[in-house]
Write a structure and sequence with these properties.
Blueprint: E1 27-29, H1 31-34, H2 41-49, E2 53-55, H3 57-64, H4 70-83, E3 85-86, H5 91-107, H6 116-128, E4 131-134, H7 138-145, E5 151-154, H8 170-180, H9 189-205
Parallel strand pairs: 1-2, 1-4, 2-3, 4-5
Helix pairs in contact: 5-6
């Protein structure tokens, strides 16, 4: 995906604080915001003009992954690396990212299961005292429980962008998965049995065909 190109800014025109969106912060771009750039046209354009957006090597790898051929790759790579400043990552970035993941794992079972790029971006933002521009609640969670200090900035209010309503059950499935993940010991089998029994009752009450799980014991 190619982000919208900002219109030329007249030479010598100083940027006023109220011209810059997102509280005029310098923000490390996350793929979740970049992929929705066209839905952010006004704020995106203003942020580009203001020079607020920067990228990281992990973001570049993720963004360039979506290109389909050598020409698209070269064009997007040039646009991102020439048009936007890049923050450096180093050994400390990896140490911070791994420590954040450990903090998350200590908070709750499976709570650390977030994309590695998110940890690296959060760690880079921590190092450079900047924020992350995203449309992904993982950054709120990493900021709250990962031991890193950075601004977690939503590119738009949660639930307001195109496609968000396509799967209204997604947050519920995720919430159920997160809770079940906390029962990870062999002795927790009865918990899963009770959950399956309740789900089977719901399936029956809804008049749906029963689900046969042949790999379950008994």
């Amino acid at each position: 995906m190619t982000p919208p190109t900002p219109s030329a800014r007249p030479a010598g025109l100083a940027l006023r604080a109220n011209d810059a969106p997102y509280e005029a912060q310098t923000l490390l771009l996350d793929m979740s915001a970049f992929a929705r750039a066209r839905d952010l046209s006004a704020d995106w354009d203003a942020a580009l003009i203001a020079g607020q957006l920067v990228v990281s090597p992990p973001f570049l790898i993720e963004a360039l992954f979506s290109t389909r051929n050598e020409q698209e790759y070269a064009a997007l790579a040039e646009e991102l690396t020439v048009g936007l400043d890049q923050v450096a990552i180093d050994e400390e970035t990896w140490v911070l990212a791994l420590a954040a993941q450990a903090h998350m794992a200590a908070h709750a079972s499976a709570y650390h299961c977030r994309p590695p790029v998110d940890y690296l971006n959060a760690a880079a933002a921590h190092q450079h005292s900047i924020g992350v521009l995203h449309y992904d609640e993982d950054y709120d969670r990493i900021r709250a429980h990962g031991g890193l200090r950075f601004s977690s900035v939503w590119a738009a209010p949660k639930g307001t962008l195109a496609g968000e309503s396509d799967d209204p059950l997604r947050p519920f499935r995720r919430a159920v998965a997160e809770r079940l993940a906390q029962f990870a010991q062999p002795g927790d089998t009865p918990v899963y049995e009770r959950v399956l029994q309740q789900l089977d009752r719901e399936v029956q009450d809804a008049g749906l065909p029963p689900v046969r799980s042949g790999d379950l014991p008994g």
